[in-house]
UniProtKB/TrEMBL annotation:
The keyword Transmembrane helix applies. Keywords: Membrane, Transmembrane, Transmembrane helix. The chain crosses the membrane at residues 6-23, 44-74, 80-99, 170-192, 198-226, 238-260. This is High-affinity nickel-transport family protein. It comes from Vineibacter terrae. It comes from the Bacteria.
Length: 274
């Protein structure tokens, strides 16, 4: 094998390991932690990480191919808008998580003539896990199962789509791929001039991202899974914390991209994908 071929193989393997490292970016970890907080199984969490990674890889490959093969130039406004979408997505994830977490004491309603029998523990409506004071007598739960945020999404018609549960993290991964795809593609072009080899690098980068995100979700799923059974109050605090972190970090990104460093909503937007 020639020295050039060895260097190319080394660069491609570097793409895989950089993809794994890319999965540890703060916005990625915050997003996946918020999604995994609703899961109660480690294996299901790993599949969610894989779905996120696949969505992320598809976007990176699509945008990267446009830049590498067709020489597409992304204007600053579009590049900043792609990054802004990540902040909006994090805010939405935080809101979805927190909407079922802040039930006030006494939210459960009891039918006239019935004993309250109220208690407070973690419980699930399908894959939506939350807690609030409730009872198991008729009318004592506080809300119907179909009134949770995820149930509303299911009723919108999305719930009838096959593999809907995996489409949620897949869609989040697609959006997150928008933010870093241009930077990754431009970095590849500075190293590899051959389009086919550059696309191969992007593919291995994506596979590394999938592997890295699966590992991260496995690590994040353990505390949520263990505490859901043994420490329900602590689990509730973990989920609230994940929702708050996602919301606050999303707001920070929106402000930074829209008004501070990026200036998307100003007269002088500045975008440096590197």
């Amino acid at each position: 094998m020639t020295e050039i071929a060895l260097n190319l193989v080394s660069i491609l393997f570097l793409g895989f390991f950089l993809g794994m490292r890319h999965a540890t970016d703060a916005d990625h970890v915050v997003a996946i932690a918020t999604i995994v907080s609703r899961e109660r199984g480690v294996a299901a969490s790993a599949l969610i990480g894989a779905a996120w990674g696949i969505g992320h890889t598809i976007t990176v490959m699509a945008v990267g191919a446009a830049i590498i093969v067709f020489g597409v130039v992304i204007p600053p406004q579009l590049g900043l808008s792609m990054e802004l979408a990540v902040g909006i997505m994090l805010v939405l994830l935080g809101v979805l998580t927190l909407t079922g977490m802040g039930r006030a004491a006494g939210a459960a309603r009891v039918a006239p003539g019935q004993a309250p029998d109220l208690h407070d523990h973690l419980h699930a409506h399908g894959d939506y896990v939350h807690r609030h004071p409730h009872g198991h007598l008729p009318g004592a739960h506080g809300h119907a199962a179909e009134h949770t945020p995820l149930a509303r999404l299911d009723r919108s018609g999305l719930g009838r789509i096959a593999y809907y549960k995996w489409l949620r993290p897949f869609a989040v991964g697609l959006v997150h791929g928008l933010a870093g795809s241009a930077a990754v593609a431009l970095m590849v072009l500075s190293i590899i001039r051959e389009p086919v080899a550059a696309l191969g690098y992007l593919l291995l980068f994506g596979i590394g991202t999938v592997a890295g995100m699966m590992l991260i979700t496995l690590i994040l799923a353990v505390p949520f899974t263990v505490t859901a059974i043994n420490l329900p109050k602590f689990n509730w605090r973990l989920r609230v914390a994940s929702g708050l972190v996602s919301f606050v970090f999303g707001v920070f990104l929106i402000y930074s991209i829209g008004f501070a460093e990026g200036g998307l909503f100003t007269d002088t937007p500045s975008w440096d994908p590197h």
